[in-house]
Amino acid sequence: MKNIWRNRDWSPMLLEEIREPFFSEEYIFEMKFDGVRALAFVSKNGIEVRSRNGKDMTSLFPELQELCSMVSKNVIFDGEIVSIEDGVPSFSKLQNRMHTKNAHKIKTDSVEKPVKFIAFDILYEDENLCDKELLERKRILDEYEDNEVFVKSKVYGSDGIALFKEIKRLNLEGIVAKRKDGLYHIDERTDDFIKIKNIKVDEFLVCGYIEKESVVSLLLGEEGDGKLVYAGKVTMGKKNELYEKLKKAKESKCELSEVKEAAKYVKPTYYCRVEYLEKTKAGHLRHAVFKGECER
C-alpha cells in the first residue's frame, strides 16, 4: 500500500449521486456542506491543504494553521472548507476568499472572516487508515476536539428521508449517505458513499443565447418587480428543437439591463425548465442544468 503521507499525488474518494433519500440501517447520514472539498495534511510542524484536484490552497487559509496544535502525529483529514454567513454555509463568501491574492487581505480575512474545516473523515494517523471501515475511522476522528476552525461533521442515524426533509426546509445543499462498513478508495468514485442534493426546479424566460461550437449558452430571465431580471446562463445542446426556434426568431434589443455580453437577443417568449442548486446573492443560478422547453 502506497504511503499517502509522503506521496500526495492522489485524489480523494468521490461519491455517486442519486435523486431520492432513503432509510437504511446499513448507512449513516450527514449533511452535505456547500464549500470546497479539501485534504488537510497536518503535523505538529505544519499543514498543507490541497483541493480535490491537487491544488495547494494552504496560503489562502492561514487560519487553518491552528490544526497543527491539535495533533501529535502525522494526520490526513478529509473534509470541506466552508464560510459561514447567518449560521449557514455561503459559497459566494467562500469564493471571495478563494479569489483573494493580496497577502495582507488574506491575513486580515483569516482573522475577520475565518473559514471552518468541516472534517468528515480521517485517512492517516501515522499509518494508512483507508482499509479500516468507516465507523472505525469515525471513532478515531472523534478523538479530535472541535475548535474555532475545525469542526467534525455531525453523524445522523439511518433515516435519510427525515434528514433530507429537514435539509429542504432549511434550504441547505443536501445530504450524504455512507455505508457503515465502507472503506476509503482513493482515486475512485464509489457507491459506498452517495450524495443526494437538494435540487430546485424552475421555469425561466430565454432572453438570448451565445453560440458555441456544439452547444449554446442560454441567457435566462425571470419576472420581478415589473421587469425582467437576469438569472444567469444554462447550456443547451444544438440538437434541441428550441435552438432551431431561437435561430429563426427575430433579433431584438436586450431586455436584461445588467447584461452587456455579445449575444443574439430575442424577444422573451420561450420558457425553459432548469434544475439548479441555489441562487447567488445576485440572483444567478448555480450548477444550472437545462431540462427542456416548457409551454406557458
Secondary structure topology:
Layout: E1 14-17, E2 27-32, E3 36-43, E4 46-51, E5 75-82, E6 84-85, E7 88-89, H1 91-98, H2 103-112, E8 116-125, H3 134-141, E9 150-152, H4 160-170, E10 174-179, E11 189-197, E12 200-211, E13 215-224, E14 227-237, H5 241-248, E15 264-265, E16 271-276, E17 278-279, E18 285-286, E19 289-294
Parallel strand pairs: 1-11, 8-9
Antiparallel strand pairs: 2-10, 3-4, 3-5, 5-8, 6-7, 10-11, 12-13, 12-15, 12-16, 13-14, 16-19, 17-18
Q: Can you characterise this structure?
A:
- With 296 residues, the chain is α+β, with helices and mostly antiparallel strands.
- The chain folds into two domains: 184 residues, 2-Layer Sandwich (D-amino Acid Aminotransferase, Chain A, domain 1), CATH 3.30.470; 95 residues, OB fold (Dihydrolipoamide Acetyltransferase, E2P) (Beta Barrel).
- 15% of the residues lie in helices and 39% in strands.
- The protein is built from five helices and 19 strands.
- The strands form five sheets. Strands 12, 13, 14, 15, 16 and 19 form a six-stranded antiparallel beta sheet that branches.
- The termini are far apart.
- The model has no long low-confidence stretch (mean pLDDT 94).
